[in-house]
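Researcher: Structure for this, please.
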Amino acid sequence: MMDVYAAWHIFEQTGKIEDYIRYSQLKSLDQYHTQEDIHADQHRWIGNYGKNHRGE
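Model: Predicted structure, token format:
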């Protein structure tokens, strides 16, 4: 799988819209996973189980 930096480099070289879209999608996915990891570390959980699993 291509990383964000490689996708940006390809876009810089080609200037093609589809290469920018690929970069943009990878960047969004990367940011999503980063945020998910931060929240899991802060709250010490894996996944979102909702209120039923927290006794609320």
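Researcher: Any notable elements?
Model: The mean pLDDT is 77. The radius of gyration is 17 Å.
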